[in-house]
From TrEMBL:
Protein name: Glycosyltransferase family 4 protein
Top-level taxon in the UniProt lineage: Bacteria
InterPro entries named among the record's database cross-references: Glyco_trans_1, Glyco_trans_4-like_N, Glycosyltransferase_grp1
SUPFAM superfamilies in alphabetical order: UDP-Glycosyltransferase/glycogen phosphorylase (SSF53756)
Length: 387
């Protein structure tokens, strides 16, 4: 078996797209004759506090599904204070350096990016002619931070750009979740070896088997991180509720503000269900008419993994994020799109939505499209050929 190490900031029992993506990758490689180990912080995301069962520990090593998982100390924080978030990233970087000093590192290493500093630490200390470094780029930082308004073009931004370029330069292979990411990498290093690695899910999905009993009001559901990038609070404030009811599942930085809004504006037809497991979520999602996938701003390089997950469930989608994600929705006829940030157009699209496309027949069609075009195992086998 070929030894392979995956370095990531997110891993189960943490929830979310990043955690699921790396979990499926590690499990898939393990099943294809790789001896996989994972380096990750003690679980803390998205609450910004180490989970109860892991507190008071500097390190924990366990074997789960034949994968060795090393969970390292981190100063956990999801504060909006940039200094505290920097300290959190640096703390994990120091834990990684400590681990590199005292442990034998395999010749093949997959490094998740962002966070840039964690990827930089790994690339800096592990680059070697005898080792193959594979950089898995899921978002283009610092560019995404600039588009979100979290960063400004100043000295700090230029430093982050230099770190980004260092990471690309010294990686032997770069995986990108979108064509836009790979185009960006090629614009900087034209000869760099690249591979399109979409965030395809890997789970058994039941076939849609009954018509949804659509009420007078359209039941729209959002499920996922309640973070700044998703802009769920702003979405709640700008939707026209005369014809819809919005259901929300998830947790994150905007959770309290959303709950406060619901409490103080009961005229807004919003129901917050809290956070549920992924398995439970798959069961409840199919009860709704349509899912919504919003981004606060169009983010270059971003293709939300929800697109592929919901397609596998046979769920019609309303995409409100622009960019390559919009292209995927239109190309495969998975639902409807509205221009990112244009809430007037979003409400118009919802108001004029063709309800016949919410039928059982169309849900089965969407699921079959996913089975044919978004197959995790086919993509994994292609990846193994270049590893």
């Amino acid at each position: 078996m070929k030894d392979l190490l995956i370095i990531t900031n997110y891993f189960p029992p943490e929830t979310g797209a990043a955690s699921n993506r790396i979990f499926h990758l590690s499990e898939g490689l393990q099943k294809h004759n790789f001896n996989v180990s994972v380096l990750t912080p003690l679980p803390n995301y998205p609450k910004g506090r180490v989970f109860k069962d892991y507190r008071g520990r500097f390190k924990q090593t366990s074997v789960e599904n034949d994968i060795t998982i090393h969970r390292l100390w981190i100063y956990a924080s999801n504060s909006k204070n940039k200094l505290l978030r920097l300290i959190a990233m640096l703390s994990y970087s120091f834990s990684l350096i400590w681990f590199f000093m005292w442990n034998k590192i395999p010749e093949t290493v997959v490094i998740q990016s962002p966070p840039l500093l964690v990827a930089f630490t790994s690339v800096l200390f592990l680059r070697s002619k005898k080792r193959k470094l594979i950089l898995n780029v899921s978002d283009l930082w610092p560019l995404a931070g600039l588009e979100l308004g979290a960063l400004k073009k100043n000295f700090s931004y230029r430093i982050l750009e230099k770190i980004e370029r260092f990471n690309y330069k010294h990686a032997d292979l770069i995986l990108g979740q979108s064509d836009e990411i790979l185009t960006h990498v090629k614009s900087l290093y034209s000869k760099k070896e690249i591979f399109l690695y979409r965030n395809y899910p890997d789970f058994k999905a039941q076939a849609p088997n009954q018509e949804i009993q659509t009420s007078e009001k359209l039941k729209i559901v959002y499920a996922g991180l309640l973070g700044i990038a998703q802009g769920i609070l702003k979405l709640c404030e700008h939707l026209d509720y005369s014809k819809i009811q919005l259901h929300i599942y998830g947790a994150g930085a905007e959770q309290l503000a959303i709950q406060y809004l619901i409490k103080n504006k009961p005229e807004l037809d919003i129901i917050y269900h809290g956070e549920v497991s992924r398995q439970e979520l798959h069961s409840v999602l199919t009860q709704y008419d349509i899912t919504i996938i919003p981004l606060l701003n169009r983010i270059y390089g971003s293709v939300p993994s929800k697109i592929f997950e919901y397609a596998r469930l046979g769920m019609p989608m309303l995409y409100f994020g622009g960019g390559e994600g919009e292209t995927v929705i239109n190309k495969y006829e998975l639902g409807w799109v509205a221009n990112a940030g244009d809430y007037a157009e979003l409400n118009t699209v919802i108001s004029n939505l063709d309800r016949s496309k919410l039928s059982l027949k169309n849900r089965i069609k969407i699921q079959n499209i996913a089975f044919t075009n978004f197959d995790f195992n086919i993509q994994l086998k292609q990846l193994i050929e270049v590893i």
